[in-house]
Design a protein that fits this description.
9 helices, alpha+beta, binds flavin mononucleotide, four-stranded antiparallel sheet, globular, single chain, about 210 residues, NADH Oxidase
Length: about 210
């Protein structure tokens, strides 16, 4: 499918067909697109949780203000941002670069120190704001890939932070749920699929300079 056709067909689903599950190979392709997302300094300051069990989806229902997507979706992705970047996290990143690119770790020392300094200059609030922004790039990649794969989605921020964190047993000192993405197949009963898209006209959105 042409990418503009796929993006025009995409809409934020309110009700999925609960009988239909995304095949594993398609799901893994979509997840790969999240993995390939760009991130500042390459640090990927997030985790991507994939909720596939019906039991966990049921548990999560009370965390959402509008749970119709959660009770009907095939899978729910939860993107969790880091609230702090610890020195051992940076070290782990550099060990990984050294391994993947087969370069001695000492060759990366200058870059590693510049990243540590950059991170040290930020408060934990700044780190979290920065980490959250990276999470939305993952979200966009996942939504885009899903649209191309003909998989429907709904991005969702409408959840109770404390409830979702408790259910997922997160360490709230260190991490926070940024955004979630329900995936599946649109239900024929979901009338939102028939609504026209409302977007700013080009002259209000774009400015060519
Ligand atoms: C970050 C983000 C969070 C959103 N949160 C919710 C949500 O909690 N519940 C919901 O039904 N839709 C949610 N939406 C969907 C938007 O309402 C929707 O994208 C917008 O109205 C445009 O409609 P469309 O996606 O169908 O084109 C969210 C969208 C984004 C990008």
């Amino acid at each position: 499918m042409n990418y503009l056709e796929a993006l025009s067909r995409r809409y934020s689903v309110k009700k999925f067909n609960p009988e239909m599950r995304i095949p594993q190979d398609v799901l893994l392709n979509i997840l790969e697109s999240g993995k390939l997302a760009a991130s500042s300094l390459g640090l990927q300051p997030y985790k991507i949780l994939v909720v596939e069990s019906d039991e966990m989806k049921q548990k999560l229902i009370p965390a959402f203000y509008n749970p119709s997507q959660i009770s009907t979706c095939s899978h729910l992705i939860v993107i969790i941002s880091k609230k702090m970047i610890e020195e051992h996290y940076i070290q782990g990143y550099f060990n990984h670069i050294s391994e993947v690119r087969e370069v001695p770790i000492e060759n990366l020392d200058l870059f590693r120190r510049s990243i540590s300094q950059h991170v040290d200059l930020k408060t934990n609030d700044e780190i979290f704001n920065w980490a959250e922004k990276q999470s939305y790039i993952v979200l966009a990649n996942l939504m885009y890939a899903a649209a191309i794969e003909n998989i429907d989605t709904c991005p969702m921020e409408g959840f109770r932070q404390d409830v979702i964190e408790e259910i997922l047993e997160l360490d709230s000192e260190k991490e926070k749920v940024t955004v979630t993405l329900a995936l599946g197949y649109r239900s024929e009963e979901d009338h939102f699929q028939h609504l026209k898209k409302v977007r700013k006209p080009n002259d209000k959105l774009f400015k060519f300079i």
